[in-house]
Design goal:
six-stranded mixed beta sheet, 22% helix, 179 residues, four-stranded antiparallel beta sheet, alpha/beta
Length: 179
């Protein structure tokens, strides 16, 4: 894989290797398997960005679990629009379920906060957040980020499900925007 990729009008440099991503996903899956043993958790993947992470995570979890997806929109290009709207909802009954939200990246935390509040009205036994990436310096709200694969600086990134204007999701490594 190349160290630089061009997507539309921007150039990105390799930031996190496919091998490191796989190692971190396995470590998070092991923690979930331990913490949720005997609970049959429902993984709730946030589309579009978390679809690859959610699939890889589920394959590494060693206990019975289920998966569903929700689609929220808050990004356009390289910046958050600040408007969060639910596009596709959840059909499952969450009453008494142990729900693990699987998100590609948490930056401000506003989307996650809204999602946790919304899911809480459906009476789950518990709600946990599992993020591939977290930008601690950009967090604006207090969240219980129980399962985090990697903490990163406040850079714009693509690859492994994350996109720039719908491009770059299929990259196996994670790339950061070159200035």
């Amino acid at each position: 894989m190349t160290d630089k990729v061009k997507l539309k009008d921007k150039v990105f440099g390799k930031f996190i290797s496919e091998e490191e991503i796989k190692d971190r996903v396995k470590a998070v899956a092991a923690r979930i398997s331990h913490d949720m043993a005997g609970k049959n958790p429902l993984l709730l993947g946030v589309l579009n960005g978390a679809f690859i992470f959610a699939a890889d995570l589920m394959r590494e979890i060693s206990i019975p679990c289920e998966i569903s997806f929700v689609k929220l929109a808050s990004y356009q290009g390289t910046t958050s629009t600040g408007t969060i709207k639910e596009v596709m909802g959840i059909n499952e009954d969450l009453t008494g379920r142990h729900v693990i939200i699987v998100e590609d990246i948490v930056d401000t935390g506003l989307t996650m906060k809204r999602m946790v509040e919304t899911l809480g009205t459906r009476h789950p036994a518990s709600i946990s957040i599992c993020a591939l990436l977290v930008k601690p310096d950009k967090l604006q709200v207090d969240l219980d980020l129980r399962y985090v694969a990697l903490r990163i600086p406040n850079d714009f990134i693509v690859g492994y499900g994350l996109d720039y204007d719908q491009q770059g999701r299929g990259l196996k490594d994670i790339y950061t925007l070159c200035e």
